[in-house]
């Protein structure tokens, strides 16, 4: 079998390095180039001693990018400047927020910058909730954010069933790796973040419009920082127009989905650690008429690198779960 | 100065031991007896090697309890059997749930047992929200639960102002010590709980009626387990009948309160570690019309032993903040 | 390709479940049966919600054990009672200590029990340090302990070179999963073990004779408990008879080994998380004449389930690294 | 009682802020000024939201320093430039390494800088091991390092008894706060340091000569980073010239000492969290002839701010334990 050749741009960050790690076990794809602007020329394993590859970091050269698939794993704001050029040579999966929002006003409001290429077509790559054919044939896929992935997979069955009322509330909790590897700020130091829990971005968080774009309603998103490296737990509160058997509703909605697991017990973030799985437990509370839905993912897998590979699998015609773990690392 | 003499019943659990620790620095009270049914006769410091006292654990003898104040730090279900007898000899502060609820049906529904002494009068000891004179003159104080303390201090300014609508949502997150020291179950093992986050008791949590009793409305409480030993962070979502300057509202509501700190930035659980402080940051979200209120306490201090001492101070006529730290242990 | 069929005895403990997880990605072996005495009849994924298998737990039936390979993942003391019978039907890899020690006196002294089957032949399965042909042809393999694996891989190059003097000191640090999943004792509770570090078993630890058996000298082993779920870091101090270029010595000793990585920088336990790799950094300290050697493994992979699979690979003629990750889960 | 007035220079770092916190409960001293070069003019509680003081940060003015005692809590290299001038106006306790070493060659070798004021007299402030009168009358006290405090308290009873042979080994493990609050490097990020354990500075660590200066022999010090905010655990290995009852030896050596606790069980770092106590468990291993001594402190209290206050108490004639906690924060 000839493998799809892949370039990872920004391979020393958490999402980029996780892509390299996961793709080592992918039978139908291989990483042929890894880039870093700061560390070009150095072995990847030097910057990322947990990786065992022979790869050497390169400068990104937009005219000579290698392979059929390019993963962009840079900060938001980078992809908009190179995606158009890259898509003329390869198919691109962007893990930043640059191409997720259709509404440029929302982009400018929430990301505080002007978009330099707002007309480049991109498909939002959340396979369980969008047209898979669109992903399969896309030249540019916008890989979803981590909070939106956990939130939307929990929310959309209620929205689509037409039984959600009011403003859905998404109380979301994230491991610290969500801040990225280059955010060396005092608040992310171990000594400060350990044994600590707090909300952040309460006034306005960037992932809000991404959820609203698909949900079609205003939502209230509050992210929190959990003293653990990985994982997202979203707790949703949705007013219901009528009592509903939610387990049944969700099981039907996700029938046949490999990466969504509906369960009766509260899920834990660690049960999906290292996997591409989203585990969801929906509860109907008759005292208050609310649906309370718990949803967990690994923010770096289903919330980033794993979902990017899931999209790649669709694009290259591989089985959707190819190379993607379903059993978690425990304890 | 002659010190008030105090007995701690159940001194080897987390709340009991924290009482002993805090009272060591109390200028107007001293622990004269500590009890444990399992370890009577052994030095307290053997069961709790972090304590430096000369105290020896005793059997609880209801007829000879020492001191003017007795703190009951046993599991819910214990106090109802001895509080009446104890209150004939001393004044009692019960840290369990036995005397918090006025509605016995709620007690039976949520605690799954019949109350054996439902008519014994008790005052709910949340000083910032109840009549301090009632606490000061009480023979039996029911010390509030940890989730309710964080939730009610955040919620009541909105309720009292008459601007709250609908069902307040309390998304509460607790450190693992909330489970107690005797819950040696697999789910509380370090290897299982570390690097993990999950909700628990979603269907129905015991602290719900305690919040509702004071709030006067139905609330939706969802507790979660955070991989840290101590701390509670409650995030509240309350529909507002009108836009409001919440900082101003909360500052006025808690003017003069020593242990409530209103702040503009998101509070962190660690900022109040080891203190009797509740730090609250209220946000009004104009996009959704919701108040989003973040509230943090140390579950073993303001959520248990510290608040118990605050109540004791009122009862013995000491300054309310006597012996109670206001600066946190960091990092 | 027909896959080797495998039974995992004691599949709900940490080592057993890790075997199931790792074998899911093994191209030449498959788990056909999992046993649990306590939970027979229940789905494996119910006891281990992080696993995604369709396997149902069975009672162990020694007369009908399935497959060519049986992994015994029970507490020490179990295997001695059934290994002889099992080896008449299958090849057995025992992850307990029952067959590691040749000296029965040492077994009785350190494990406080009499061995019921001391004459059953077993091969000590540490592939990098023993005759691989012996493992390949063994009917019973004694899989090494976690502390001994990290210690011996670091120590033996010095011993074999004949430059070690005196009593080697092994200061070893282990994540809490080393205690196992069934040790629900107060000291292993999250609230007690988090934010905490301590030595244990200083007077005498069971893994001491296992190291001494191979090293041929007395060693001093002191294990410590680290507030993390997984990982072992052994720091060795060995008096040297002469100054030596240790990097060169170790690289030559382990030339061609896939799972031993010699490095100049201090290794971290997380760099090998989830992998079968032992990373070693040897330092020569000219001020004191000591070799200081740092050695890290994942206690549940190279220290248990991964090394067991490495042994299985040798036994079934598969490539030694088949199905065993070399890149770690980070962060 | 008129309180001793105190200035804390560098109050926003971990040691400085811990001084402020501890001194709030000191009956005989009060902080009257806090300085920060970067944040002068801002409230201390803004930089340190866990503190509840009304103090405002100032620029350090060497000509107008307030109070009788000045604590210098800056990086090593700062104190040498101002201590002479400060000691003409106040008594100074320096928490850096600038005045700990008598041997300037060692200072230059280990700290990689030339000392600008090597002749200024200073007393090494480890009260249990030096002449307390010298501390009491000193104008400049060099507060010991954290690793040396844990190591020396464990080592000196053996040295003084004349039963130690060879090179004592100090395998020391530190919580991450030891790196300080301003070391915002990738390796100290929560996501990197959590669930991780590693050695650092193995080739040569700065605290080595500080231990050797008092011990009078070469020692081998290897520090490690533990995924916890606070605490040091030193494990010492010392060859013994003869079998010795170490518990008896240590108890006699430290008889009457308030802050040294000799115990038979392995101590844990958490048992001394927030206290000024050093807990030591000495073991004699007859198999190897080694003393194995475990020693724990809170690196920010007995290893920094607490010991500084202990020295201040001696200097101002207060009881040595005044304002210093002996019971730990648990869990």
What brief labels describe this structure?
homotetramer; seven-stranded parallel β-sheet
Question: What does this 3D model show about the protein?
Answer:
The structure is a homotetramer of 331-residue chains. In chain A, strands 3-2-1-4-5-7-6 form a seven-stranded parallel sheet. A seven-stranded mixed sheet of chain A has the order 9-10-8-11-14-13-12. Chain A is built from ten helices and 14 strands. The longest helix of chain A has 16 residues, at 146-161. By secondary structure, chain A is α/β, with parallel strands linked by helices. Chain A is globular, with a radius of gyration of 19 Å. In chain A, helix 5 links the parallel strand 6 and strand 7 (140-142). The two termini of chain A are 36 Å apart. Chain A has helices at residues 14-23, 44-47, 83-87, 104-111, 132-136, 146-161, 190-193, 208-215, 246-253, 301-316; strands spanning 4-9, 29-35, 57-58, 69-72, 91-94, 123-124, 140-142, 164-175, 198-199, 220-226, 232-240, 260-262, 278-285, 290-297. In chain A, helix 1 (14-23) packs across helix 10 and helix 6 packs parallel to helix 8. Chains in contact: A-B, A-C, A-D, B-C, B-D, C-D. At the A-B interface, strand 8, strand 9, strand 10, strand 11 and strand 13 of A face strand 8, strand 9, strand 10, strand 11 and strand 13 of B.
